[in-house]
Specification:
It is built from 4 helices and 16 strands. It is of the alpha+beta class. The strands form 4 sheets. Strands 1, 2, 3, 5, 6 and 7 form a 6-stranded mixed beta sheet that branches. Strands 10-11-12-15-14 form a 5-stranded mixed beta sheet. The chain starts with a strand and ends in a 19-residue tail after the last strand.
Amino acid sequence: MTAVTNELTLRLEDGREVRLFALDPPLALLNGKSEAEPAALILARKRLRALTDGKTLTLTPGVEEPDRWRRLPVLAEANGVILQEVLLREGLARLRPEGDDDALLDRLLAAEEGARSAKLGLWSDPAFAVKDPDASPRWLDGVQVFEGRVTSTEMFRNAVYVNFGEDRRQTLALKISNRLRKALPGDPLALTGRRLRVRGWVGKARGPLIEIRHPRQMQLLDGPWPAKMAPEKSGADKG
């Protein structure tokens, strides 16, 4: 390894770049909310350099393909220490659920939860802290974590929508494809009234929307998932 780039990417001696699997680095926010480089990102790069400088790394490719910048996702270890786990435990990055190694994701999630509970690093910064879904219109075009109670669910155009408010234009909704629905541990249509933590890129459809692409983007905070039910057909086009 020869360098650490802006997005916590490792540039190897042969010129290839690899990204740290399962991490969302604390990048500058879009939508005019922050133009300065976040302090957490500066600290994360410094910490990553300290963890890798002069060390031989063990890089294990993830199951995902290289991204559009041709960066291969890898699990990175130095002297038996998982770099992703260190950065999450110190609050210098957030978990990006990917891959199918549930034991590894559990371990990384536990590291993140410790930092979040202690408000370490980026978790003490309002730009990256857990937010109420009602605040979602102010945080478009970036990765965020929200916690709130589900007010309703519905099937629409072969997808499940999980809503955090009555007015979809003003509060967060989740979109879950039928394909992803099959991979969930329970039935998302039965989540009304449940307290949920969700993470992902906040885009916009009728209102703020996160498209769920991995089951671990959602965490139920008040008990186990409801049992799966037989899939139901999509409702009529609502316009």
